[in-house]
Inverse folding.
């Protein structure tokens, strides 16, 4: 046992006296800390925007509640009163714009994923939801190209380079330094010594990874006790990823080539698995299942909206009442009824178009998952975004929440619109209780 302790202590001194090793460790640690703060900055910026729109929403609704109590005998109060109590609003002013925010998972800053590409909140009224959710720009093209320098980026891209740097000369340094014959002459086998030396390097990498993950949770004010599952999932996946890269570089070292060649083979493997393979997979998927054109979807939705104004009232009401017999058929010349009925039909058609678009995306994602094991870096990032709830599936769940919320609001509004009744103070209090903050 003393012999192994002596070997470990000696190897530790050699590593710590190497300026190259210390430099690599400090660079990795510094990059990790920067990634932690970058993710924290992005999430805090999103939280500020969410807080602003939520405060604005609450303020606007408080104004409506105040206007609903105004004395309408005063001329200047009458329009405000009508704005508050009319479910259709006044003139071109809708009654109210609702906001729903996608609150961040505690660990979202550690792996931003697609959270900074999709909107973190939506504002909408009770007209056609599909069009309102698809009028914005999906993402910044440059951000799509470069990604984010968050902690997950460091763990996925830089840790393998650190492993390659620590392991590439594990055998060659002894051979090229002339100490290999002496090592083989010892009573301890050379293989055992290499295993101990490699084990120390592997533990050093795990130590850096553990330190960065702990700092990430600490600096993001994430309670490890309350989010133990996320912490251990992040840690377990990172350790497995490090073990994979260690096994790959040890396989290269086992070829017993020169240090320069081992380093080149390691870097070549990194380029293939981290950069080239994902790019080739993307080309294959683009040829196999081309990504649907979202700009075309938005264009079609806008065309539907334009056609909406050309539809005769009789045609709109016939279709609307046949699909929605729950609403009483009253004055078929009423503009507001026609307006909201036509937008309902528009939204239903738009939802079908949007569903077809999402089905294509889902099929493509299923195909990606069947091949993603060829790209360990992409597979790990997919798992990280799943834990942090920053992937596309999480955004789709957010959109489903909005759809359900919009349907609930419509049922409250349409009951008053088609009964040609204003909102009472009790109705407004019900709507206020439905605000999602």
């Amino acid at each position: 046992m003393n012999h192994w302790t002596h070997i470990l202590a000696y190897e530790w001194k050699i590593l710590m006296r190497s300026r190259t090793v210390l430099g690599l460790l400090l660079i990795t640690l510094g990059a990790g800390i920067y990634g932690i703060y970058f993710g924290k900055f992005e999430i805090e910026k999103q939280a500020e925007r969410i807080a602003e729109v939520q405060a604005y929403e609450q303020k606007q609704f408080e104004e409506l509640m105040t206007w609903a109590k105004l004395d309408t005998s005063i001329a200047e109060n009458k329009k405000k009163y009508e704005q508050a109590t009319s479910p259709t609003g006044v003139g071109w002013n809708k009654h109210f714009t609702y906001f729903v925010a996608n609150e961040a998972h505690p660990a979202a800053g550690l792996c931003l994923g697609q959270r900074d590409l999709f909107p973190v909140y939506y504002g909408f009224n009770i007209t056609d939801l599909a069009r309102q959710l698809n009028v914005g720009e999906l993402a910044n093209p440059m951000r799509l190209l470069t990604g984010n320098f968050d902690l997950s980026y460091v763990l996925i891209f830089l840790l393998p380079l650190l492993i390659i740097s620590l392991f590439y000369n594990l055998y060659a340094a002894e051979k090229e330094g002339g100490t290999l014959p002496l090592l083989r002459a010892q009573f301890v086998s050379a293989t055992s010594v290499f295993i101990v030396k490699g084990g120390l390097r592997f533990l050093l990498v795990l130590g850096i990874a553990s330190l960065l993950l702990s700092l990430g949770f600490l600096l993001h004010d994430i309670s490890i006790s309350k989010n133990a599952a996320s912490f251990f999932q992040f840690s377990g996946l990172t350790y497995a990823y490090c073990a994979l890269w260690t096994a790959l570089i040890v396989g290269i070292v086992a070829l017993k080539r020169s240090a320069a060649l081992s380093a080149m083979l390691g870097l070549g493997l990194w380029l293939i698995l981290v950069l080239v393979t994902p790019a080739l997979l993307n080309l294959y998927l683009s040829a196999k299942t081309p990504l649907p054109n979202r700009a075309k979807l938005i264009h079609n939705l806008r065309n539907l909206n334009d056609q909406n104004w050309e539809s005769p009232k009789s045609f709109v009401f016939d279709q609307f009442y046949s699909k929605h017999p729950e609403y009483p058929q009253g004055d078929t010349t009423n503009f507001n009824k026609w307006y909201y009925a036509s937008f309902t039909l528009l939204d239903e058609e738009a939802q079908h178009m949007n569903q077809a678009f999402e089905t294509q995306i889902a099929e493509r994602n299923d195909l990606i998952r069947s091949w993603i094991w060829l790209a360990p870096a992409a597979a790990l990032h997919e798992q990280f975004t799943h834990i942090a709830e920053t992937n596309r599936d999480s955004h789709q769940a957010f959109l489903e929440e909005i759809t359900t919320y919009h349907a609930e609001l419509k049922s409250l509004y349409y009951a008053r619109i088609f009964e040609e009744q204003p909102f009472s103070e009790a109705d407004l209090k019900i709507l206020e209780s439905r605000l999602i903050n």
About this structure: Residues 137-146 have pLDDT under 50 and may be disordered. The two ends are 61 Å apart (CA to CA). The chain is about 70% helix and 0% strand. Residues 19-67 form the longest helix (49 residues).
